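Schema walk-through. Below, the input block comes first and the output block second. Nothing else is stored per chain. Lengths vary across the set, and this one has 276 residues.
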Amino acid sequence: MSLRKSLAAFVVGIALLVLFSVNATPSHAQSDGDNATATAPLYKTISIRPTKFGIHADKGYGVQADRGAKTAPDEVTVTNSTAQEIIRDAYDVKEDQIVGAPGWLNSPRYDIVAKVNTAAEGEDTVAGEAHEERGNPRLQALLSDGFKLAVHRETRLIPAYELVVAGGGPKLPESDSHRDDSSLRVIQVESGRITGREVPIATLAKILSDQLGRPVVDSTKLSAHYDVTLQWPTDPNSSYPAILTAIQEQLGLKLVPQLMPKEFLVIDHVEMPVTR
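--- output ---
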């Protein structure tokens, strides 16, 4: 389905929602809905302490070592994690989907041990099955109890691009091998330059998304793998759309500005934990 059709369906859905929600409960009920999963696991004790681990970077890429969360039948442990990282794990969202986070949320790092009341294990199992697609209910409970976190999910329209074939047709040469073998794929991204071989269009769209700082949705229907060479001006005095022009002139593709729906996790309330 094209981005235009998806957007049209989204707008119709919003219109129906407004029509049937005139007498509905205010939006804070969404917070209650998301946090309902957080009441299932009942913890006997929760210990939150400043982390005993340092922050380690792996080869300069900023990968955090010794970080993570583990869930056992009677215990949940979190190691060397910020509250924002725990929220990402608990609600299965990415960094740019979290809205309303105070600055401290991504700074102190914690080690947490939460002892589960096994008498409530049946409730936890039911909640986990009912909300499996919404994340980790035990981590949500941990955030609710230890950080007084209240959230709700909200869909907003954000700027995006739709990648389509330009009027003159694609100018991308197909790769010689014609094989779906990722080991043959070579991609280099430099300042003002993208080169590669055996590149699927979906991968090219992801690279362009990173370069442009907004989602790029592939609507080209091009299914082969291609050899890519794309260059554009990087001079600060050059106009920003230069890359859009280069894509059309050099690749025979076109980026069309659009709006697309995206789900966000909105933080309604959160408190710094009492470390103990």
